[in-house]
Design brief:
The protein has 220 residues and is mainly alpha-helical. It has a single domain, classed as Hypothetical protein af1432. The protein has eleven helices and no strands. The radius of gyration is 18 Å and the shape is globular. The model has no long low-confidence stretch (mean pLDDT 92). The structure holds adenosine-5'-diphosphate and nickel (II) ion.
Length: 220
């Protein structure tokens, strides 16, 4: 089977599962992550393109935020990849990448095993979509969906968090999410290509936060 045919099948598989998400993990997020990863692939040599781009498409389809049963979703994905003529090694690598790349996983120290270069690129591409102007919009969209306050100067950001803390939104504010996660991502990029893009996006977020607080305080 041609690589392009395999990628088209992966795209269809993902689209069918992610179309109606309302928490910022919809198919539009996937498209941006795929675009990001292609940009990174052009600068970082040595990665397997089919595995990288497929993992970018598939990175959220077995996530516990989106599916009831992670094991069943993983089995379904495994069968699909085998039917689509991915080799055993490619299937194993894709599954390992998507099981280990998320920010919430890293909070419990589960990310100790280093990702292969393909996984590092997908993780960078996903993190790039959480920062900058898109990152600001996604945080507000997510926070609105889950009933977070916009901001409360009385509530301090949680500096150290476990995965359970991260998912506990009872005392969360959208602005605090920047200090708890988004501003930290720039220094956690794996590749130089992503670090470079992240530097500009970090400025966008810092400027937004400065302006937000000035306007909150009534400063013109
Ligand atoms: P991951 O799949 O890496 O664990 P998340 O589900 O934590 O990612 O994040 C998905 C999107 O929702 C990101 O853009 C993230 O910044 C945003 N988000 C996650 N938690 C919050 C929160 N408490 N408040 C606002 N936005 C959030
Ligand atoms: Ni993602």
């Amino acid at each position: 089977m041609e690589t392009d045919t395999q990628l088209a099948a992966v795209q269809q598989f993902t689209k069918a599962r992610m179309a109606d998400d309302e928490t910022g993990h919809g198919y539009d997020h996937i498209q941006r992550v795929v675009n990001n990863v292609k940009q990174l692939l052009a600068k970082e040599t040595g990665a397997d393109q089919l595995v990288t781009i497929s993992a970018a498409y598939l990175h959220d389809v077995t996530d516990d935020k989106l599916v009831e049963d992670v094991n069943a979703a993983t089995d379904e994905l495994t069968n699909f990849l085998k039917e689509t003529h991915f080799s055993e090694d490619q299937v194993a690598e894709i599954l390992e990448i998507i099981a280990n790349m998320s920010f919430s996983k890293s909070l419990n120290g589960q990310n100790a095993k280093p990702l292969p270069i393909e996984g590092q690129l997908v993780q960078d591409a996903d993190r790039l979509d959480a920062i900058g102007a898109i990152g600001i919009a996604r945080a507000i969209y997510f926070g609105g969906h889950f009933g977070e306050k916009l901001y409360d100067p009385e509530i301090a950001p949680r500096v150290e968090m476990t995965k359970a803390d991260y998912r506990d939104l009872s005392n969360e504010t959208i602005i605090n999410h920047f200090y708890e996660k988004l501003l930290k991502l720039k220094d956690r990029m794996n590749t130089n290509a992503a670090k470079e893009i992240a530097t500009g996006r970090q400025k966008t977020m810092l400027e937004f936060l400065d302006n937000f607080k000035d306007e909150w305080d009534g400063i013109q």
